[in-house]
Every structure is written in C-alpha cells, then in structure tokens.
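Quick one: structure for this chain?
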Amino acid sequence: MRRPVALRLQAALATAAVGIAVGGTLSIPQASAAAGAATGYATQNGGTTGGAGGQTVRASTGTAIHAALCGRASSSTPITIEVTGTINHGNTSKVSGSSCNTADGVIELKQISNVTIIGVGSGAIFDQLGIHIRDSSNIIIQNVTVRNVKKSGSPTSNGGDAIGMESTVRNVWVDHVTLEASGGESQGYDGLFDMKDNTQYVTLSYSILRNSGRGGLIGSSESDLSNGFITFHHNLYENIDSRTPLLRGGIAHIYNNHYVSLHESGINSRAGARAKVENNYFRNSKDVLGTFYTNERGYWQVSGNTFDNVTWSSAGSENYPAGPNPTSNTTVSIPYAYRLDGASCVPDVVRQTAGANTGLRVSDGSCSPQTPPPTTAAPTTAPPTTPPPTSGTNLSLGAGADGSSKASGTSYGNVRDGDISTYWSPAGSTGSISIKWGSATRVSRVIIREPSGTQGSIGSWQLVNHDTGAVLASGSGAGVITFAATALSKITFRINSSSGTPRVGEFETYAS
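Got it. Here's what it folds into:
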C-alpha cells in the first residue's frame, strides 16, 4: 500500500516559503510573443503549430480568453491569445458561440483546434483555475503559471489538475510553464499535468512542476492504455510525492530533466508502458524509477542518468524499483531529432531555462542556455487606441443608441453624435453600448474611439450581433474592428473588462 507523505510535503512547503521570504528580488525578463518551435513527440503526427498564421488578441480575464475563442469564424480558425495579469474564478465566465464550448470556473479548450495561449508582459497567472483540453488538437500553451487548482474544498476547478487533457486529444506543446500546488490530495489537490482517454503526441518542455502530491499521469487506470507518445525534457520536478510521471501503457521519452526531493516515487512505468529515460539528474529522492503500487509491470531503457543521493526500497509485491543499479529492460526507438545535454550540467541548464518568465530560454544541446530570436506576431484585433481617419459614411450618424446602465452625466446618444469630446460611460467597469437602425443594415467595420486623455481604459470586449446573439469579433482595447459583412438592425459593443472608467466617445459603423 502507498504510505501518505502529507506531513513531509507540508514541511518541505514550509521550508520553501521561508526561502522565498528571505530571498532577494529576481529580475525577470518579459515575453512579448510566442517563440521557438515545438520539440519531441509534438512534432509528429503532422506537427504542432498552435495559432500560427492567425489573428493575435490580448486578454486579461478568463472571460476574455473564452470570448476570443468564441469570436473566431470557426472552431479551427487559428488564433494566438496573449494573456496578461491574473486569471481567476472571479473573471472567468462561460461564453457561448458556434466556435467554442466553454464553461465557468475553468479555461475550457474543448472541441477546438489551432490555438496558442501565451503569457506576455510581466506574466500570466491562472490562480486556482485549471486549463482543460478536451477533444482538441494543435494546442500550444507557453509562459504561464497555473497554481493551487483544487478538486475538493473551495474553489474547485478542472478536477484538481493544473493542466488536464482527455478524450481524443492530439498534438499539444506545453512549454515554459510553472505548475504548482500547496500540498497533496488530503489538502484538495490532484495532478499538475494529466493525460488520459486517448491523448497522444504531447511535449512538456522547459517547465517547473513543484510542491504537489502528484506530478502527473498518462492513463487514468490500468485499462486506459490509449495514451502515449509523450516527451518530457528540460523540466524541473521539485518537492513531489510521486507520479513524475505515472505512465500506464504507451511510450514516453524522458530526457534532461532535473528531479529534486521526490518523496515516495518518481517515474512509474506500469501496465506495459515503455519509457526511454536518458541524461536526467536525480537528487535527494527515493525510488526515482520503476513499477510501483501494482503488479502490472512496465519497462524502461536507461542511459546517461545521474543518481545523486537517491535511495531505493527493496523489491516486493507491487513494488519493483529499477535501482540501485538501473539497467534497461526494453528498447525505445525515437522518431525525431533532439539535442541531448550531458546529465552533469542539467541542474544548471534547467535552473536557467525552466518555468514561466525566463525569457523562453532553451538549451543548445551543449549545456549553454540560449535566448530564442524574436518572432513577428500576427496583427492584433485592435490597432492603436487613436484610430486614423476613415473614409466612407459613418452609419451611426442619425441612428439610434441604447445600452446598459450609464454613468451619471453621460448619454447613449453621445457615441453617435460625431463629437469625440462627448461620451458614454457604463455605471461600472463593464457594460454595453449599442447602435440600432429601423431596418437591417449591412456593417463590416466598426471604430471605437475613446475621448482624449482616456485612451487605454477599455480592456477586453466583444462585438455582438444583437439580433442573433452571435459574436462578430472580440479583442482588447479601442480601435478599428473588421469582420465579415453582416446585415443587422442592432450591433452591441460589450466591454468585459477595463482599467479605470471606460469611456466611448464614438461608436462608428461602416458598410466597408
């Protein structure tokens, strides 16, 4: 039987907290756009490119992330969502649309494809809010922190998994992320990185997984053997009880990872699984490789690993450690090219490259961290806050206007009077304003103008066909919005977040 180690994990967490409290300030480079290319098994089966070639939008709330997904032309239209700030239960709501299937209390990547989510600016934190990938493909998640996701207690999200994948998921690259909890199952937490029910072709690279009872699994039970082709490289596993990972069936390639303070067990290959385990560095840990808690044996191919102060238990029923002198009992053929650092330098390379907010640095395969060259991002939905002059007839002039509750002293009509100095403002930090006509009017372009001195206050938004409820576009910030030409009698600009008090000076509409 597995022995609980909650007290040991909690003690380690307390020690870590003291270390943070007395430590100095760390200078963190900022990320501005997705960089590099997928590695490992994520390069197979057609490859993993995420939202490359599509629109780029900025989001500072979970609702805005959902709105960006729902505002696409289809569930497979490529999109890159740049995330900044803290995403939590308070700002994450379900958004409906034909190109998405979202839910409250979780970032839902469900029945979609061709999406990149990347943290930018000073960082993106998903606080007590998990990321759920289901029935989806070609997904990239980069440069974000996901912390303290619970399956019990309050609040709960994503079954307690920081990042969870299930039900026919293909080609996912998770890179330069930090996944962390504050305890084990008895404290309400589950896995940091779980894959089950036919999840394949996944890479986890340059990431930190720490302070949790469970690092992650591949396969939810001994009968869930449809998962596999997973790569783990240049990751730090620290202060984890077990499952780094737990592999049931399938194939995994595990190289150049740094394992520190694994309390009960580490790489647990079982139920016929095969793992290629090479040039990793294991330190101050127990039973870092083998088959544990079952008689359904798994297999491993080992080479070049360093075992530094690693202890091994005695073999017995449901306990088959690979050590103290691990040797291979299978062979695994790797179909892709990769660069292998020597195990001796892995702790230092991983320290400089792994986790969110490290500048997306990678190893060159010769123990030397490198900063990837910048990439050119696709145009964002909204251009600068002061739009250029435009030609054509502003259809809002002479139209009607209404909206949600307005702030004292403002008027709905101020957004269609041609005067940028007058404005409408919602009663709070969010709200909606509409332009309406007596009959269907063809519109394909909108310009939202903010009064002078207030630019930048509008955060995430949706542009909605009020007649049908369909989201025409979504993004962040005022400016020019273009979309497929639509005939409608009322169009609504819905502000979902803001900094300060949002003000709309003019809500201009154009046929082309």
